[in-house]
Amino acid sequence: MGTPDAERFTARAPNAEFIQGYGLTETAPVVLMGALGSRNYASVGSPCPRTQAKIVDLNDPTNTALGPNMSGELLVRGPQVMKGYHNNQKATEEMIIEGGWLRTGDIAHYDDNLQFYITDRLKELIKVKGFQVPPAELEELLRSHESVVDAAVVGMPHPVAGEVPRAFVVTKPSARVTEDDLKAFIAEKVAVYKRLDGGVTFLDSIPKNASGKILRRQLKLEYCS
To answer: Best exposed site among 5, 12, 195, 214 by fewest CB in 10 Å?
Structure first.
């Protein structure tokens, strides 16, 4: 959950203790967990006991661990990691590599305090002129705008750049924000290649599945094909 959403939740439930965590079905299910009382809602915490995590460069076949504040794919290993997929050795070998490390498929980094941050899914990165743009980064920035309730960002085909970010936004009922307002809001906060050059579309709601994940493929088919 992004920081703006977490802050909205804690504002409505001030007596509840909110803790971010991270895991996959293949890790049964938790590998990273925030500390009790932490207000760093952007982080999913640090590795659970007997669990190891590292960040590796997407183009490094040796999977050498990167240092703090360097972005790459998150790999984990520990007693909760699955042995493999039933009757599917090929999928198992693609998921679990040498040393028992499991590829999560998530882009992440950790800070100097060993707090990890998930920034996006590897397969959902938008590739702009060779640069990789995490949709979740732009979505969180959009949600921080005072007029925005929810947002989604996908890659839109572009004849020169390959892809450019396109945003889909749900605004508050009384909001008067325009496409140019939001494009300017993002432009002043990000690198040039992360700007919303694919435009902004206003929707009544962002399509999501039952678990709350954005249906990016549906948005691409309806608005970017």
So the answer is: 12
